[in-house]
Amino acid sequence: MSHASVSESSAPAPRADSERPVDRSSRSAGSLLQALTMPLVLAAFATYLLVGMLMMEVPDSVDFPGPRFFPAIITGVIYVLVVVEVISIFRHWSSGSLGTTDDAAPAAFSWRSLVWVIGGFLAFSLLLEFLGWILGAALLFWCVARGFGSKRPLFSLIVGLTVSSIAYIAFDMALGLSLPSGLLGGGF
C-alpha cells in the first residue's frame, strides 16, 4: 500500500449539502428582525384596513356585497400572505439559511426608485379630486412603474390608464360606488 493511498483513505469524506455546518450569523436576532420587517409592515397595513373597515358606517339598506366586501377580501389576503411569509422566514431562520443567497453582492438601495414611488403616491393623493380616479390612478401606476425600473414610459401609461379605467367601471357600475371623475367628468 503506497503512502498516497493511505493519506487519501484517511482523509475525511466530503460532507453532503444536508450535513453542511450551519452559519450562525444567519441565525442572529438581527437577521430575523430584518427578514420580518416587511411582514410586520404588511400586518400593520392590514390592521389599518381592518380598523377602517370596521369603523365604516354602512346603511342597513346596502345590499350584498356592500362597501366592506372587497376591503375584507383584500385584508384577509394580506393577513394570509403575512402568515405564509412569517412561516417561511422562521423555517429558513431555524435551518440557518436565512439571508444566504448565491449572489456575490447584495442589491444596492435605490433612492431614485423610492422617490418615484413616494412621489407618485403623494401626487395621487393631492391631485385625485382634480384629475379624477382614472387619470390619478394612471399617474400613480406610471410613477410606480418608473420606480421599479420600467424603460417603456408610454406602455406603462397605457397600462395604467387601462387598469384604472377598469377599476373605475367596476366600482361605479358593479358596486354602485362613485369614484372622483375629475377632469374627465367635467368637474372638479
**Average pLDDT figure:** 81
Unreliable residue stretches? none
Distance, first to last CA: 94 Å
Helix run count: 6
Q: How do the SSEs run, as a string of H and E?
A: HHHHHH
How does this structure look, described?
With 188 residues, this protein is mainly alpha-helical. The chain folds into two domains: 24-95; 111-185, no CATH class. Helix content is 64%, strand content 0%. The protein has six helices and no strands. The protein has helices at residues 3-10, 29-55, 69-95, 111-131, 133-147, 153-174. The radius of gyration is 26 Å and the shape is flat. The protein starts with a helix and ends in a 14-residue tail after the last helix.
List the helices and strands and how they pair.
Elements: H1 3-10, H2 29-55, H3 69-95, H4 111-131, H5 133-147, H6 153-174
Summary, kept brief:
The protein has 188 residues and is mainly alpha-helical. It has six helices and no strands.
Structure characteristics:
single chain; 188 residues; 6 helices
